[in-house]
Structure prediction request, 271 residues.
Amino acid sequence: MIETVIGCTFEFEAARPTHAIVMVEPHFAESGRIVETKFELDPHGASTVYLDHFGNSCRRIDLAAGRVTLTFEAVVSTPADADPVVLDAGEVAPADLPDEALMFVLPSRFCESDLIADVAFAEFGAHEPGWARVQAISDWVNGSLTFQYGSSSPSLSAMDVLSAGTGVCRDFAHLAIAMCRALNIPARYVFGYLPDIGVPDPGTPMDFCAWMEVYLGNGWHTFDPRNNQRRVGRTVIGRGRDAADVAMVTSFGQVLLHEMNVVAAERAPST
Prediction:
């Protein structure tokens, strides 16, 4: 096991006291990995945590009028190995899927699997079912889209991205998810912290990362269409049908985001 340092800082400005929901802390399922954690608002405001129906840790906060800085920091223990590969994990017929997986076969707001079905069947309908087919989808999305900061918007769907040919990690995930669902393979949207462990420094500021989890065999498996690599150190923040279910910030009033910084790195050994 290794330890990673994760966290973020947001600087908001609100015209008046405003209630908001933020999702920046690890998913409930990650709670056993947390070594230490800290959440702060400056100036201080009330906050409470609840779990939504996906098990995501959602924090309700009260933002004071004016500038407010939100800081979250944590140390988590994580396996030193990369995401597992399970080549013999097969597809599960819809009739045999567990109840909780069924919603992740249906179309959703940003993953229009019904509209993209013709493309999915043309590209992957004849492909070997199971792990190999999902990896082929991830390969195809990675090769078909160009990653470009600033090329996306919160309203873009999988169909929009397929047409545009560019996007950011959420768009890569949405397109791959839609392709999987069109083939009756349950797939869900995931975002979280992903340190650059064992990979070249990309030379860009750290950011949150989005990927997908696919139900094969008897469980969920990680696939990352954006990076298309098995990686070390993922910490999940949110899971849902698509990005609409896991908004990082939902404010009940006008709030400007002036600055955001994200940290995800292997913890330096203590001296």
